[in-house]
Design a protein that fits this description.
The protein is of the alpha+beta class. It is built from eleven helices and six strands. The chain has helices at residues 3-18, 22-60, 65-102, 105-111, 116-119, 121-157, 251-255, 266-279, 284-312, 320-347, 352-373, and strands at 163-172, 175-183, 188-198, 201-214, 219-231, 234-245. Strands 1-2-3-4-5-6 form a six-stranded antiparallel β-sheet. A hairpin with a 4-residue loop joins strand 2 and strand 3. The longest helix has 39 residues, at 22-60. The chain is elongated and about 90 Å long.
């Protein structure tokens, strides 16, 4: 039996189980078509503005046109689609549902004996489809394209020298490393300190003016160092111009910033967070926010779809405009809550899982109330 026949039988089975009708297919096509159309429209505007801003940079570097298309924009587009897809879905639902309402189509459907909650079925199916697409993009496609985009920028625009200061990293269960300043471009740390503890007392301490990593021999090179070690109650002090040693820490552990999580798949990000927790990284909350956000934003699509339906299903004399106006107000409120809760998660002591999910919880409550009060 061919794949096409299998899909046809699966579709027929689904229709039998759900009582799927032609009107459901009509609404689903409207739903998905409106989302795709809004994405294409907004992405065209974003690309035009981005091209106008960067065209001089592209020309000054003599970047081939095919490289700009395949290396930059094909990796640039998925990030923005996934970023705005909850908003795309919300506005699209409001737009096409308002049109259905203004044309008396919803009144006709409900007037022919279809219950309001049965009317929600095609919206449910559409929201699930878009939610699954968003989950796949956020956790597998977008991290890959973000990494490709970074490589394009490094190749043609050069890697900027970025320094970070006051970095504390856990090397093992009883040892820690510190650098006053880390040069990310050259992978060199200045004012380096290594401390090893035994029963809450310092057993070994190494200070060096500079620490660098030898990639060829996989070892750390400390320059202008001072080594102090307690052995049987006696302190042994040694110093020198250079010392080769090994640690459990690699240069990437010093070079990381909050954006590195955007280049990892979901499984890689989970492993990375566990590793950073063990090292005592102060960026763990940022990485956890990225992890939870990937799921929360996709679930937000489901919530915003039904909120858009509840807002726009009632016919008004003012037409589509009032629905769009209300919808935009709710959408910007949702975005504002996301930003505020994220800030509290990073610096206000709010757990990342709560900071990420609070906007969804609040708007789920609003959506349930709105559906109860919607025109039936």
């Amino acid at each position: 039996m061919s794949l096409k026949s299998n899909w046809k039988r699966l579709g027929e089975r689904f229709c039998d189980l759900t009582g799927w009708k032609i009107i459901d297919s009509y609404i689903l096509r409207k739903f998905l078509g409106s989302v795709v159309y809004s994405i294409l429209l907004l992405m065209t505007i974003i690309i035009v503005f981005d091209l106008s801003e960067n065209i001089q940079r592209f020309m000054s570097k003599n970047i081939p046109v095919n490289e700009i298309i395949t290396g930059y924009y094909l990796n640039f587009i998925p990030y923005f689609i996934n970023l705005f897809i909850p908003l795309f879905t919300f506005i699209s639902v409001i737009w096409f549902t308002s049109k259905l309402s203004s044309n008396n189509e919803i009144i006709s459907i409900l007037g022919n004996g279809v219950s309001f909650y049965r009317f929600l079925v095609p919206y449910f199916v559409g929201a699930v489809i878009i939610m699954l697409v968003s989950l796949i993009m956020a956790n597998f496609i977008v991290p890959h394209t973000n990494n490709n985009l970074n490589e394009f920028k490094y190749k043609y625009f050069g890697k900027q020298a970025v320094s970070t200061t006051d970095l504390h990293i856990k090397n093992s269960a009883n040892s820690y490393m510190y650098v006053q300043r880390w040069d990310r471009e050259n992978n060199v740390g200045y004012d380096f300190t290594y401390e090893e503890f035994d029963d809450s007392k310092i057993r070994l301490k190494i200070k060096a003016q500079m620490a660098s990593y030898d990639l060829e021999n996989n070892k750390w090179v400390l320059r202008s160092y001072l080594r102090r070690e307690i052995v049987d109650g006696n302190e042994i002090v040694t110093s020198g111009n250079q010392m080769d040693t090994t640690f459990n820490v690699l240069p990437r552990n010093f070079s990381q910033d909050v954006f590195i999580a955007e280049t990892m798949s979901y499984s890689e990000l989970r492993s990375f967070i566990a590793e950073e927790k063990a090292r005592g990284s102060n960026l763990v909350s940022h990485f956890q926010i990225e992890q939870h956000k990937r799921v929360a934003n996709s679930i937000g699509i489901f919530i915003m779809s039904f909120l858009g339906l509840s807002v726009s299903s009632r016919k008004t004399q003012r037409g589509v405009g009032v629905h769009v106006f209300i919808g935009m107000g709710l959408a910007f409120t949702f975005i504002f809550l996301q930003q505020v809760s994220t800030v509290f998660s990073v610096s206000g002591g709010l757990p990342p899982v709560l900071g990420t999910w609070i906007p969804n919880i609040i708007f789920l409550f609003i959506t349930v109330l709105s559906l109860k009060m919607a025109q039936k």
